[in-house]
Specification:
Helices cover about 55% and strands about 20% of the residues. By secondary structure, it is α+β, with helices and mostly antiparallel strands. The protein has three domains: about 180 residues, no CATH class; about 90 residues; about 140 residues, Histidine kinase-like ATPase, C-terminal domain (Heat Shock Protein 90). Helix 5 packs antiparallel against helix 6. The protein has a five-stranded mixed β-sheet, covered by helices on one side. A four-stranded antiparallel β-sheet has the order 1-4-3-2.
């Protein structure tokens, strides 16, 4: 899981917990809030009535003894004005809850009681609202509270995700530019990624320091390979020359001649091993250029001409049915080596009178070249280790197991996928996926 996602999840969980706690506190305080809201409404109505009070209004209220507002036919609100003696003078307003019977109906009301004087007379004003109004207020508060909490949660989550994305952007740039996109240490960019976060600066500098060490070792490895190959091939060439001269010695015993031939054969095999390892090392160290336009169809045609004698010697049926002449940019010599290794193995490990078939197809955006043979095949274990150096698909044959290792190195260098399918005693099929 990405660090950014973890940050977002952590922020989401903590904010949800905080909002749930706040919501619980608000719900427990809802009754008090609703009562305060209802009491404030009663006080505002009282102030409005007192502000617009006149003699006609007083006479109307006193004669009826009770009055309901025009918009309220369900008796949810009442106003009662009564005349009181001077001895009961008290100008304070009181709010309480009480049952009242209004026109035969008993309801629970929240009542504001207020005593005031008007033109030397004292009056008692009562304004009441049913508790159903209180429930309506509670529902309104719950609804708006839910909207506010959900909106706050969404806003904070989006803000946290955006901020974490902005905060971690230098980190992902470091990972991409300094690690994922680096194929060759010699082409590494040591320029620091701009960031104000000290932790990312430390990471960037540490990777740069590590890459300097790797680049140094990489250069030493190139130099070592060049020196070793030169130092090894030189004495091999000298020994080969000496053995060949010895063969030209007159009257050399036959047993000595056979031993010299065996020694020459061993030296040639050793030279082949060194050249193969040197080729793999150079390919893996990106010491080749990929600038040539290559035609797979033409390469396969050229290889068939080179190997035609060997194919005829084993009476192998060879078919190259390519529907498309696929072109791509790469290193022509390396691709030739890759293909000739695969086809050479198809000949070498084939049975007498067998067949080799080369086909192609296009799937999605991939071009797939498949080389199949009817040879001895490999077991499941050997297929899994097919690209390991010094392991062979047929242990009874003499060899060094570097053919498919070279194929794999060249394929990786050209970003070609290699898929091997093989059935023991039935044949092998190798697909190159471009």
């Amino acid at each position: 899981m990405k660090l950014q996602v973890k940050f977002s999840l952590y922020n989401a969980v903590t904010k949800i917990a905080i909002i749930l706690v706040l919501g619980a506190i608000i719900l427990f305080s809802l009754d008090r809030l609703a009562y305060n809201q209802l009491d404030n409404r009663l006080i505002k109505k009282k102030n409005k009535i007192i502000e617009h009070l006149n003699d006609d209004e007083i006479d109307s209220l006193l004669n009826k003894q009770q009055s309901f507002t025009d918009y309220n036919i369900l008796k949810e609100e009442f106003i009662v004005l009564t005349d009181i003696p001077d001895s009961q003078q008290d100008s304070s307003a009181k709010v309480f809850t009480e049952k009242r019977e209004i026109e035969g109906d008993i309801e629970v009301y929240r009542i504001l009681n207020y005593k005031f004087s008007y033109h030397t007379n004292w009056y008692n004003l009562e304004i009441g609202e049913t508790m159903t109004t209180l429930q309506s207020i509670k529902n309104s508060i719950r609804f708006y509270m839910l909207i506010v909490l959900v909106a706050a949660l969404l806003i904070t989550l989006v803000a946290d995700f955006t901020f974490s994305n902005f905060l971690l952007k230098p980190f992902y740039l470091i990972i991409d530019k300094k690690i994922n996109l680096v194929d060759d240490p010699s082409h590494y960019n040591y320029q620091n990624i701009p960031t104000s976060t000290n932790d990312f600066k430390i990471l960037d500098n540490s990777i740069n320091s590590l890459m300097r060490k790797i680049n140094t070792l990489f250069a030493l490895e190139k130099q070592f390979i060049a020196n070793v190959s030169h130092e090894l091939l030189t004495p091999i060439s000298i020994l080969s020359t000496r053995f060949e001269n010895m063969l030209n010695t007159p009257d050399i015993p036959v047993e000595h001649e056979n031993k010299i031939y065996a020694s020459l054969k061993t030296l040639n095999r050793l030279k082949l091993i060194i050249n193969s390892l040197l080729l793999i090392s150079k390919v893996e160290n990106n010491q080749y250029l990929k600038t040539e336009e290559i035609s797979l169809k033409q390469e396969i045609t050229d290889i068939h001409e080179d190997l035609e004698d060997r194919i005829i010697d084993k009476n192998i049926t060879y078919q190259a049915n390519l529907a498309k002449d696929f072109h791509f940019t790469g290193n022509k010599a390396l691709i030739h080596t890759l293909l000739i290794n695969i086809i050479n193995n198809a000949i070498k490990y084939n049975v007498e009178g067998g067949s080799i078939t080369i086909t192609d197809k296009t799937e999605a955006e991939n071009y797939i070249l498949t080389i199949s043979d009817t040879g001895t095949g490999m077991s499941t274990e050997l297929v899994e280790n097919a690209f390991d150096r010094f392991k062979r698909g047929n242990s009874e044959e003499n060899g060094f197991g570097l053919g498919l290792a070279i194929v794999q190195s060249i394929a990786k260098f050209h970003k070609i996928m290699v898929d091997v399918k093989s059935i023991e005693h039935a044949g092998t099929s190798i697909s190159l996926i471009f």
